[in-house]
Amino acid sequence: MIKVDGVSKIYTSxxxxxxxxxxxxxxxxxEYSKKIAVDNVSFEIEKGTICGYVGPxxxxxxxxxxxxxxxxxxxxxxxxxxxxxxxxxxxxFKKEIGVVFGHRSNLWNDLPTIESINLFKAIYEINETEFxxxxxxxxxxxxxxxxxxxSVRKLSLGQRVKCDIAVAMLHFPDCLFxxxxxxxxxxxxxxxxxxxxxxxxxxxNKTIIITSHNFYDIEDLCKRIxxxxxxxxxxxxxxxxxxxKHIKFRILSLKFKSKEETSSSIRYISxxxxxxxxxxxxxxxxxxKFKIEDIKxxxxxxxxxxxxxxxxxxxxxxxxxxxxxxxxxxxEILLD
Length: 336
Known about the structure:
Alpha-Beta Plaits
């Protein structure tokens, strides 16, 4: 469905020299710097896939998404969407996609929300039957019907994001591009968005590409992720495979019934297990980081506290996906 073949994007910016002499030199002999935002990136995404596209700030995520949406043209390489070449001037494929940028709204700021919805309905030539079906599906999760007559300017951040998602999905596009789609949403609304996108993908076989710094979004939605760093695509695999390959640590969480017992347990572990990475989560909980191979030591610590009447609960968790990705992008994990 989506094919990206050797795509690169280079940004050129003028170097401004300081002072009056620098100002004069800039007039007569300008110098420019070049930054490679996306460097020879290639991948394919099949129809009906939910894929996460992640990386640190400045890694090239947003530039890639803009090229996939036809907002920017690549300097080299090609992008195809349903065998249609993607470019700024190709308007045909743009009716088959929906885009949400969490920090930039598609809504008309000074008009009621319904006006933006009607505008998108006209742009995408949605008939009444489709509009009713699509809006009912979206509204059943996002509950935006009460916001239709409210000026966009008066919406909260979370309300605006919900309406932005709604207008992007109004024509039921084949592919949704979501950049930070849950920014400003409380936990209940976020869960409804996750449920809606999951059902949208499952029931209608729609493709979703999501970028987010909230890795709960990525884990809740995606089976596959691509990691970009310094403009290069460095990982393209299923989340399960990435975790099994690159998990280095487990976390043992011990929760106690009193602050005093928490403090006492920290002292005991520090005195008897010097090499452990021990930290306080809060006044009643401590965390201990173990290497993945230290199963015997993990069980030994658990056995030390399992019969303690002041131990409320314990839990062993694997290293988070966010931590794994950070280790990969920092070069702390060597890739094959």
